[in-house]
TrEMBL record:
Family named by the database record: In the C-terminal section; belongs to the HTP reductase family.
Superkingdom, natural source: Bacteria
SUPFAM superfamilies cross-referenced by the UniProt entry: Cytidine deaminase-like, Dihydrofolate reductase-like
Stretch list, region Disordered: 220-241
Protein's organism: Actinomyces denticolens
Composition-biased stretches (Low complexity): 222-238
UniProt cofactor(s): Zn(2+)
Domain CMP/dCMP-type deaminase positions: 13-135
Protein name: Riboflavin biosynthesis protein RibD
């Protein structure tokens, strides 16, 4: 995944260490429609600043590092910028990073891998046109692994998929009588609303819709319960609301709580690939990140199709012994076929509940 400018560059120790610092910083960002990106700035082989992207609408990694360097009084006309992904060349929620680098007067840039997104790509060419020395390929393999599934999504023109589930210690999402509210405590449930606020679309099955009648909105605050998903909840709404999606063959009832406005969609299918094709068509309108919240049927379907790129598991210190399992039959008959995930950040204890984030392993090609 090297750029065109230099196939076998000779990297200095300082450059390699700076790119390593950028990769470590990138891991602090949230996964979703945007890749994890980190940046570092060297002056005379000294690491001056490190930055990373903190999510949609926030400064990109390059700008974050530039602003940090400026606050330190650095002379950027002598700087070298190292970034884990080619600087973007388009205007989205933020201006083009390539132009920010040019405006900062930075003369040299190294990016680990090229951006496969045709909308965002082109930053390296813009930098070269402005007289900036551009090289690529440093720690390219590590950068590709970091964003392996995001890169696959970008090339396939499909949304990045996060699946979130809340379960007991023995893997149950509901008791034998169907009760499930609430398995996890308020702190863990509030973190689920943070996930909703980052997603462009939230997806549940018609079974979950019938059982819980959720509003599927992202909410903040603590009045009275920041994660109460009942229609009567008065917790304030987040500024960003995902498209509310229901997947399944059963119709959406006229009195369903998610019908509060027109910002919802029914996907009359049980095939996750067909559903994702429909959502992928919405990517041009901002649906680049889909959050699956349940139930077990929908989650199982996406896992079976290997279409879950990130898995967020909330584990409550409860035992039920029976009831609804979090995941059904994936069609796996031998250990070698297991769906594999790797821990993406240290587990977090929210109240009494454990929250663990996993990134899906790259597909074998």
């Amino acid at each position: 995944m090297r750029g065109e400018s230099q196939r076998e560059p000779a990297w200095t120790r300082a450059e390699s260490e700076a790119m390593s610092a950028a990769l470590e910083a990138a891991r602090q960002g949230p996964r979703g429609a945007n890749p994890l990106v980190g940046a570092a700035i060297l002056i005379d082989d000294r690491l001056i600043a490190v930055g990373h992207h903190r999510g949609a609408g926030t400064p990109h990694a390059e700008v974050d590092a530039i602003e940090t360097a400026r606050r330190a009084g650095a002379d950027l006309s002598r700087a070298e910028l190292l970034v884990t992904l080619e600087p973007c060349g388009h205007t989205g929620r933020t201006p083009p990073c390539a132009q920010a680098v040019i405006d900062a007067g930075i003369p040299r840039v190294i990016h680990a891998i090229d951006d496969p997104n045709p909308t965002a790509a082109g930053g390296a060419a813009a930098l070269r046109a402005a007289g900036v020395e551009v090289r690529s390929g440093l720690l390219a393999e590590e950068a590709a692994v970091l964003n392996a599934r995001w890169l696959e999504c970008a090339r396939a023109h499909r949304p990045f998929v996060t699946a979130k589930t809340a379960m007991t210690l023995d893997g149950r999402i509901a008791a034998a009588d169907g009760t499930s509210q609430w398995i996890t405590g308020p702190a863990a449930r509030a973190s689920g609303h943070d996930l909703r606020a980052r997603a462009d679309a939230i997806l549940v099955g018609t079974g979950t819709l019938a059982a819980d009648n959720p509003r599927l909105t992202a909410r903040v605050g603590a009045a009275p319960d920041p994660a109460d998903d009942s229609p009567s909840s008065v917790a304030p709404a987040s500024p960003h609301q995902p498209l509310r999606c229901v997947m399944g063959l059963r119709p959406v009832p006229p009195d369903a709580a998610l019908r509060a406005d027109d910002h919802w969609l029914h996907l009359p299918t049980r095939d996750p690939r067909e559903a994702l094709a429909a959502l992928a068509a919405l990517a041009e309108h901002g649906a680049g990140h889909v959050l699956i919240e349940g139930g077990a049927t929908v989650l199982t379907a996406f896992l079976a199709a290997d279409l879950v790129d990130e898995l967020v598991v909330h584990i409550a210190p409860l035992l039920l012994g029976s009831g609804r399992g979090a995941i059904g039959d994936l069609g796996i008959t031998t250990l070698a076929e297991a769906r594999r995930f790797r821990p993406d950040s240290p587990p977090a204890l929210l109240g009494d509940d454990l929250v663990i984030r996993y990134a899906a392993s790259p597909r074998a090609h």
